[in-house]
Amino acid sequence: MTQTDSPAQSEPVRQFRFRLPPGGCDIILVRHGESQPAVPGVAFPTVNGQADPPLADEGHREARAMADRLRHEDVSAIYTSSLTRTKQTAAPLAEYLGITPVEEPDLREVYLGEWDGGEYRIRMRSGDPLVADIVAQQDWAPIPGAESMADLCARVKPALERIAARHADQRVVVVAHGGVIGAALHLATRADQFAFVVSANASISHLVITEDRWILRRFNDTGHLATDLDKPVQPMT
């Protein structure tokens, strides 16, 4: 039998389909639902000095839509940050799946210093001159007292790697924040620092973490929120 007519070479070859690499972890990243609006002169409640607004009514609806989307996934664990809006977003899915969410404090939102507590939203909407520096530098460091992108990445990376190490060959859901998801996908792709910071509330992104690399599979999937596609994306926090 010649090389050209061997069984291996005569069989049809299908296109490649991605499979989770052995030992890898499938991480479904969900941004929390819309939180309560900021009111000038009224600061949000805080946890350890960081803004902690609960979900708005719309955010609860988004959380239920996300849960309906993911309820049939083979999910081994659900993780949230230490902030209320992620816990409330995770709650409907956790109830569907019978899973108790695990808190991972290092997945809390970027700390915004003097602009925390709702001030960030207000300043962004009003066009504060400092916003231009934030955008130009792709960093929150220009805000007095704010956490830098480098510092955010320095806590997000090991937090996600800890989760991945606990769940080799499994799928988990991580409910986090716009800044955290942006940092994670920046780390995975080495794209610009702010390339992924604006994800929609209750959107789904998808990251695979293996021992030697991070792989971006999906970003800002809002198919379960089809009726809300025209709604403006809420700023971080």
Question: What would your notes on this structure say?
Answer:
The structure is a single chain. This protein is α/β, with parallel strands linked by helices. The protein has helices at 7-10, 57-70, 84-97, 119-126, 130-137, 149-166, 178-189, and strands at residues 25-31, 46-47, 50-51, 77-80, 102-103, 170-176, 204-209, 214-221. The strands form 2 sheets. A 6-stranded mixed sheet has the order 5-4-6-1-7-8. Helix 3 (84-97) links the parallel strand 4 (77-80) and strand 5. The termini are far apart. The mean pLDDT is 93.
Summary of the model, kept short:
By secondary structure, the protein is an alpha/beta fold. The chain has seven helices and eight strands.
What's the shape? globular
Helix segment tally: 7
DSSP summary, beta strand count? 8
Strand content: 15-25%
Structural class per helix/strand content? alpha/beta
Look at the structure and give the mean pLDDT: 93
Rg, alpha carbons: 20 Å
Task: Provide the spatial order of strands within the biggest beta sheet.
Answer: 5-4-6-1-7-8
Low-confidence stretches: none
Q: Termini distance?
A: 67 Å
Helix share of residues?
25-40%
Q: From N to C, what is the helix and strand string?
A: HEEEHEHEHHHEHEE
Biggest beta sheet summary: 6 strands, mixed
